Structure formats: C-alpha cells, structure tokens
Amino acid sequence: MDGGEGGSGPAERSHRSSVSSAGARAADVLVYLMDDTAVPLAVENVASITAQDLHRTIREALQLPDIAMEAFALWLISPLLEVQLKPKHQPYKVCRQWPELLLRFTDAPEDDMAVDEPSLQFRRNVFFPKRKELQVNNEDVLRLLYEEAKFNVLEVRYPCDVEDCEQLGALVCRLELGPYRQGPQTACAVKQRLDSFLPAHLCKRPHTLFTAFRSRGTRLVPGEQGLLNAYQEVKEETAGPEAELLTRHHRAYLLKCHELPYYGCAFFCGEVDKPAQGFLHRGGRKAVTVAINLEGVHVIDTKEKHVLLGLRFQELSWDYTCSGDDEPILWLEFDGESEGTPINKLLKVYSKQAELMSGLIEYCIELSLAKEPGLAQDMKASPTAGPGPQPPATSQRHQLRRQSSVVCSRIQHLATIDYVDDGKEIKRVKPKRTTSFFSRQLSLGPAAYAVVQPTDSLEQG
C-alpha cells in the first residue's frame, strides 16, 4: 500500500463514505472525482472486488481511453490518512482495516479515529511519469488531471510563487469565465470568485487600523490585479471549436504545473527539528509535509508553505528506523558544506508514516532504474563524495529559480546532524561560534577582551 498525507486533503471538503457494509450483495459504490462529483457504480460482490476490477468499471462508466489505466489509481482518503491502493487490494477489506491503519500511521486522537471513515477517490497515479502525461491528448483525461492539479495549487499542496499563482489562476479564469473582456463586469466576476482562482492567502485583504477607515469596495487584494493582468494576457487561438480550445488551456495549465518539482507527489505529514535559537538553545519542532514522486523528495514547511529541502534521488541516501517505543524516523542524508568544506548532512523526519515514505522512495528508485537503466550509474554514486556539478536547468525549470522562490531549499531553517568521514572515523561537525553569547558589553571604552575565533576550518567533536 502506498502512502498519503495525514491531516489535510481533498477529504476535508466532505465527510463521506464510499463502501458500505453490504457484504456479498449488489451495492452502489460511490467513487469521487477531484472536482468532488460522485460516480455511482453498481457492483456485485462488493466485499471481494479488487481495486483493479473497480478501476476498470469506473473507466468504462466515464468512457476513458486505455491511457487512463496508467494515469489514474484508486485512493482511499479521509481527513486523517490517504493511501493509494494497489491493483490487488480489496477496497472493502481495507476499509474494514481502517481503524488499524489510523492507529499505525497517524497520531490522531482516539475520538477522531473513532468517527473517521474513508472514501474512494479516482485520481492521478503517483507512478505515472510526467513524460507520458505529455503524450495525453484525450480531453477527458486532461480535464481530470487539470482538476487535480488545480485543487493542489489552490490548497497550497503545490506551493507556488505569486507570479505562477497568477498565471495559473488566469488559465482557470479563461476556462470558467471565457475569453477576457475589457470592462468592470470581468473585474467584478473575478472578484466574486477570487478563491476559485487563487490560493486563500492571496485572497485576503490586509487588516490594519489605517485600512479599516478606507472604503474596501474598490480596494484590490494582493493577487487580484496581477490575476486580472495575467487573465488579459492569456493567448487565444483564433480558430477551432471551443472544446478544442479548452483542451489546449487544460494542457497549458498542466505544463505550467510540470515546472513544479513536486508535481504528482504523494504527501505525508511529519515534523523536523528547528535550529536551536537564543541563549538557552531552545529548538522544538516544526510541522512539515513530505512530498515524494518519481523524481525525488521535498520537505515543505506546512505553515509557511515553502520548501525547506528538495532532493533528487541521485542526491540522497535514506533510512527508516523504528525500534521499541522509539518514534519512527525517516533519515535523509545529503551533501552540504561548512565554511567551504564538504560535509555530510542528516535530517531526521519524525513521522508515524516514515515506513510508508521509505517504502515509496525505494519503489520509485526501482521503477526509475527499471525504466531508465542509464540512471543506474547516477543512483549508485556515493552520496558522501561532496557536492558535484548540477545538470543545466531546462528553460521551464529556470523560470522558477527566482531569488526567495518557494521551490528553493531553505536548509538554514533545518536542524541537521553534520559530520565528515575521513576514512578512519566519523566526526561530528559543530557550528562555529563567531560572536559572544552575551550581547551586553561595556560601551564606554574598548573591551578588555576579544571574542575567541576558531582557528580550524571546522570544529569537530
């Protein structure tokens, strides 16, 4: 069973059930799409039907082409947990095991577990490569993929820079409002449905004492003017039926999302240590979302909605540990540097879903090696050999390499274990102390002492 995210997700839109306790009788099974519509399916022997058979049934009901067999998978989702079902899984039996899965893979309170009930959802397969998605021409498949990508952007599961949110929102405006028309009616229509086009944090007006006395009737929220400008710039084809034009815009939206390194990920919840701060070196933990796809792993700050660490599989080693009463941990090892000296960094991700994450990483690497043998040499490269040259970014990726972009790693916000291996022993690397612990000093004359500066390139212990 492949993992998903505990805590937030599509299941929050409605608390619903897909598979009842109908036993061997014929039953209507509800399968939900990403736009929250339900597809009822009459199923015989619901207790023993497999995900593969149910997948075939829904493809026939939606009249989808063969590519949908690879592009989509059946998921069981709830507000507490999301899992992608394997073809051999029996959804009814997995639903019956749901309380055990919650106990094993979530930290949810018992009261929440007692009322949690999963629903079946038809959505993108984590193992569907983006290169194959580029070959999809069927408008129904593209629309389903678009609806899922749009949801993930609006819910900030795919963190985006403001400029990208505006461009993506402009395509949604075109698809839902039609071609841009100059005038107050268009601006009014966009304003009324702003949260359908932009993530919530770009739809809020700043609340200050000054703005409270100003008329807010014509005041634009932060992303509104940029959205209108981007909407006006959406390119229109002069010929062709409207359905074909809509398909082109669906594809344009997906292509823009392909630039995001975490497109098509499965999401997991966890925590990481904060860097020690202050005189008492207080740290604590911060909540993170771990996003894993066929390309790599991204650790995303759940509150700030930006990337803390992004690694391709060629750039990391990993392990999963859980013994006795110890908290499950996913360990991520990657290259770094300290004052210009190559070092190794270890990040601890605390999560009851660490086992799911580790299994998904391993399977993604196996798939990549099986389908692209040329990657084997990269995968076998030693992760402790020091930072190597990076492949040139494509023109699409380069657009996201803005300063302070949400997709750029913020390793300084992480507390990692740093070490060097000199071939004889592993030595921990301690950060330099370049300033005094005490900020208050006599300012009426020259200080009688100087702050001690480390002489070695690294402090080890």
Amino-to-carboxy terminus distance: 42 Å
Helix content: 25-40%
Largest sheet: 10 strands, antiparallel
Q: Structural class from helices and strands? A: alpha+beta
Unreliable residue stretches? 209-217, 375-401, 433-461
Count of DSSP-assigned helices: 15
Tell me briefly what this model is.
The protein is built from 15 helices and 15 strands. It is of the alpha+beta class and 461 residues long.
Topology, pairings included?
Elements: E1 27-32, E2 38-43, H1 51-62, H2 68-71, E3 72-77, E4 82-84, H3 91-96, H4 98-105, H5 110-115, E5 119-124, H6 130-133, H7 139-154, H8 162-177, H9 184-192, H10 209-212, H11 224-232, H12 242-258, E6 266-273, E7 285-292, E8 296-301, E9 307-312, E10 317-321, E11 329-338, E12 341-350, H13 354-371, H14 376-380, H15 395-398, E13 417-421, E14 426-430, E15 459-460
Parallel strand pairs: 1-5
Antiparallel strand pairs: 1-2, 3-4, 3-5, 6-7, 6-12, 7-8, 8-9, 10-11, 11-12, 12-13, 13-14, 14-15
